[in-house]
Amino acid sequence: MAVLEVNHIKKVYKTRMGGEEITALRDVHFSVEKGEFVAIMGESGSGKTTLLNILASLDTPTVGKVLVGGKDYSTLKDDERAIFRRTNLGFIFQDFNLLDNFTIEDNIRLPLVLAGENHKTMDQKVVPMARSLGIDQLLKKYPYEVSGGQKQRTAVARALITRPSILLADEPTGALDSRSTTNLLQQLCEINRSGQTILMVTHSNVAASYASRVMFIKDGEVFHQIYRGDMTRNEMLDKIFDAVTVLMRGGEDSES
Amino acid sequence: MNHKLLNKLVFRGMQKNRKTLIPFLMAGTFTVMIFYILQSLAYCPYIYYKGVEAFYGAQTIAIILDISSQITAVFSVLFLFYANQFLIKGRKKEMGLYGVLGMSKKNITYIMTAETILYALISMAVGMMTGTFLNKLMLLMLYKIIGQRPVEGLFFSTKAFGNTMMLFGIIFACCLLHNVRSIRVGNPITLLQSNHTGEKEPKVKIGIFLLGVVTLAAGYYLALTAKTASEAISSLFISILLVVLATYCLFTAGSIFILKRLKKNPKFYYKTKNFISVSNLMFRMKHNAAGLASICILSTGVILLLTCGCSLMMLGEKNINRLYPTDVKIESKVTGVEQGQREITQIRSALKESGIQTSEEVYRQYKTIMLRKDGQKQTYADPDMMYTDMGSCIDTYLLSMDDYNKYVGTNEKLSEDQVLIYNSDKEWKSGEVLDFLGKKYAVAGNVDYRVTSYVLDSTMSLFESEILVFASEAQINGFLEQVGQQEDEDYNVYIGYQTNGALSKEQQELFTQNVNAVLTDVEIHFKAEERHFFYNIYGGAFFVGIFLAMLFLMATVLIIYYKQMSEGYEDQRRFQILSNVGLTEKEARKSIQTQVKLLFFLPVGAAMLHMMVASNVIRLFLRMVLVVDAKTFGMAIAAVSIIFLLVYILVYHITSRTYYKIIHTKSC
User: Fold this and answer.
1) Among residues B105, B115, B276, B481, which is most buried (max CB within 10 A)?
2) pLDDT digits (tens, 9 = 90+) for B130-149
3) Which residue from A82, A114, A145 is facing B585, i.e. has the nearest CB?
4) ipTM computed for the complex
5) How far lies B655's CA from each of A220, B20, B567, in Å?
6) Which one, of A47, A55, A51, lies nearest residue A4 by Cα?
7) Which residues are CB-neighbours of B563 under 8 A, at least 6 positions away?
């Protein structure tokens, strides 16, 4: 069964005065199987942030359904949705979204504390998780004391600590230098290999080339998909380049 | 760059920052107004002007007004600086942006200067205008409180105007200097990012924490152990200083200490509601501890001032009755019982000549002696010696049993080793033993206070007072001889009358003349006149107290408002992240409420505690001017505290609305 099913969703924003309507998503339809690493690519304004917000249950689609593990959460109340979110989804953001006033350790613990877990079982989860991401030496430090890459790995640890069914990543490499980027992406691949479903939104070709499937979104629709199959990463990167070129040409055509 | 554009930027900036600016301008206006009103009342011809008193006791009121306007001045400096700092903090980013866009420092200085001058003009103009209108109202209010007939006509004091202009001109100029300096020092980029720097978790300053604990203990100890008015005088100032210091230390270091402790306990810390609250509170306390401590001190000040004012007004009548038990009070010294009787007849005829009808006549004769408490013993206090501990002195009145029987209308007998006693500080029981001038006496009972209280000298209320009734006149003379106070036949005499109806001014004058014509060395007091004087002085003090309390209250409200706002902006991002991670709205609201409430009521709680501890000293202090019974004083404290709390809660509701509004606007 698919972990995530996106059933023909449409999202229309009304401007504040109720006049003009803006269609952010026209008709998006896809599904993600368990253990996949999917990258969603698209230009700014293509609707990928809207899509991610809907997937993250931070926003609801105007038409259509999103099923996570076969369950539709758009029918849930706000508070229930928040609980659903913290038990089923893990998040990584471009700007890390760590809390300044918590140590790295407490930032990782946060979802567990929210879930009301016993503090002894927390320790058994936090330390191995930190070790697997190579931040076990930093646990007592504060976010402002560590590098961007380390911050993002903390965010990954925080996202994975609850063993979510999907890890949602929004431009996770956007604020990182190239070394940290490579490092993080390799780590994500490793996490994916251990069976974690990952869905990543990015506009970096390199970042997308690590995924097992790349989806292109344009003007609120899924425009194109590339499956990795048994391609190497470089072959994948070339394919992505080609697709992006086509995508951009198409954009020019429609503008002219 | 042309000035038209810059001026436009000034107005745009003001509009954009109206949320912080309006309270600032209100604070400015209000302080100007209060200072101006106090000043112009102090130099007002209807109170005291160029050495002419408008009514009895007016000079004292003018002095109180002047002193309190000086307090207001000091306070305005501190307070406007605080508010200004908050204002400029929010503008740094904007100025940084102007800098990036290519505005020179000169241009930015121009904007800052124009703004500050505008603020100063608005505050001063509005403040003084409302001040001028309210002046008259305040004067009438003062007249009402002190029972003076209202006057016609407005007044304007150039001196008050000048003083106000000068004081606030200087304050605003200093603010401007500070602002320009803080803007000019940084480069645009650092200004732009000024509120994005990560910050360290606060450290426990164990030294400051301990200092706080020690000073609090010392201050409380001084306040609680003061037993007499003189001790209260010597310890009041020190204990206030100690407690103020302690409040600042404990709010800054103590709060962090406790929170760190809580954080160390994983069982407590890793619970949803505690996890977020504890760590947030730690940072909040780091930023706001000083503000909270100020709120605490100001609140204590407000409650204290109002309590004193209320007890003065509530106890006024009681005290006048105590000071002047009868409508007419004559104090005299006579030699021998016969002279006393002669004086009475003379006074009676003086009353008749003055046309004063009386309903009751009181005559009391007594002797006095000053004693010292020496452990359980009461020994003679030599007037030639200076005693450092005024608190141990007892103002003692001696009556013979014969006279006492006459006053009470009984026919009791005492033996030579027995005594009847009244003591203002101690309840004596029959059978106890009094060690008086080296001899022991058995207490046979209590003196009837109602009948004998006339003899008490009200100007000596600072001391403990005692009335002793001994078996015979001879025995009393024996005591006086023993201590070398030779006055065999000399008595102090109290003669008092209750009159039928009020006395006119002419009657009073005529009576005084008639008495002075036949008797020298007598003091005459009319209750009505003394009451008038009392209300003039204490009414004036009460009036000024209300003014200062209002000022403090306004400062408290403003600090709270700014605190809520700055916290709102800090917490906005934090709660957004939390909700992304999956904190439910309900949990978030609950956590915010706990924190906000705790921070809000902590200072008032501490203020109430301070007040409770201070009540003892304050009561002793008030006893210098009037008798304060514990019940009325307690009621005054309770009433003032409850009203204060209600006002505070109201402010909480209004300001927390702003806070929630900020929290709920999502930042992207």
Assistant:
1) B276
2) 998 888 888 888 888 777 77
3) A82
4) 0.75
5) 43, 13, 12
6) A55
7) B288, B291, B292, B599
